[in-house]
Amino acid sequence: MTEEEIRERVKAALSPQRFRHVEGVVEAAGALAIQHGADPVRARTAAWIHDVAREWPAEKLRSEAERIEVPSGFAMVPVLLHGPIAAHLMREEFGIEDKEMADAVRYHTTGRPGMSMLEKILYLADAIEPGRTYPGVDELRSIAARDLDLAVARAMDAGIEYLLRRHEPIFPLTVLARNELWELINRRG
């Protein structure tokens, strides 16, 4: 399946607003991949698919999650289910058999310990795509160009702070990934 075919299939599945976000993530993922020596085609492809199930109703997400293998804990925050479901659809609907790309899609909202470069790129692209306008995003974009790990760690901190302010659940893998990244960053000085 070509990138254009993937784009059109994703466009048909999403609202115009969500599709604009996906286009921004594709743009950011491609740029980050080039800046950090990763494959921009794989980064862009994962970015096209990452939110394909994002607008599904909660009941459809839960029903699909019962049918497929979903990593532990995702069901506690149903909106997060769109990542593992999109990773499943990557193989089933788009015919893409690439474990690293599937993991990038699966964990794009949560992160996890031991993230690959592609996983970090998609996680960060989702946070800093051009349509994002939250406080601190411009600084994150600047850091992202020179230090992928630091930018991901700071994006995770910002996400956790946001969830704390709203008294929302914090996904355990995000905390573990954040701690791992800060340990790595602090060790290198």
Question: What features would you describe in this structure?
Answer:
By secondary structure, this protein is mainly alpha-helical. Helix content is 68%, strand content 0%. The protein has 10 helices and no strands. The longest helix is centred in the first third of the chain and has 21 residues.
H/E element sequence? HHHHHHHHHH
Compute the average pLDDT: 96
* CATH level-3 fold name: Hypothetical protein af1432
How many separate domains? 1
Could you give a short account of the major beta sheet? none
Strand content range: under 5%
Brief sketch in words of this structure:
The chain has helices spanning 3-13, 16-36, 40-49, 58-67, 82-92, 99-106, 117-128, 137-146, 148-165, 172-188.
Essential attributes:
10 helices, Hypothetical protein af1432, mainly alpha, 68% helix, globular, 189 residues
